Amino acid sequence: MPVAKIEVRRSRAPHEVQALIEAVYQAQREALKVPEDDRQIRYIEHRPEHFAVPPGRSENYTFVEILLFPGRSLDAKRRLYASIVRRFGELGIAPHDVFIVLQEPALENWGIRGGQAAVDVELGFELKV
């Protein structure tokens, strides 16, 4: 049950926004084996003066932050990074303009399914991928 944010500093047409969301979703499905329809992805567009771009990056600079349950292997994470970068590339975003950060709060720090700690819930999918 990853929760993802895509943050950008320029406007895009609605169909482009949906394509970026879909790219992150499909990368999660492919690399992390998340269940179908597990799609918690937000797209946040900042005004340029509110989002500094690192030197050498373009106006397409895109920051992706994903919170996920702990347990995925380093190889799964590498597959996720590569899949997001490849899919964004197909949408016109250069690899050097993509920055991805994963955060893995412990299961007891997730309140799900009516306020239960995730550690107390049968998740219904494998975390060790």
From TrEMBL:
Report if keyword NADP is assigned: no
Instruction: Provide this UniProt record's keywords sorted from A to Z.
Output: Pyruvate
Q: Which domain of life is it from?
A: Bacteria
Pfam families referenced in this protein's UniProt entry, alphabetically: Tautomerase_2
Question: What are the boundaries of the signal sequence?
Answer: none
Name of this chain's protein: Phenylpyruvate tautomerase PptA (4-oxalocrotonate tautomerase family)
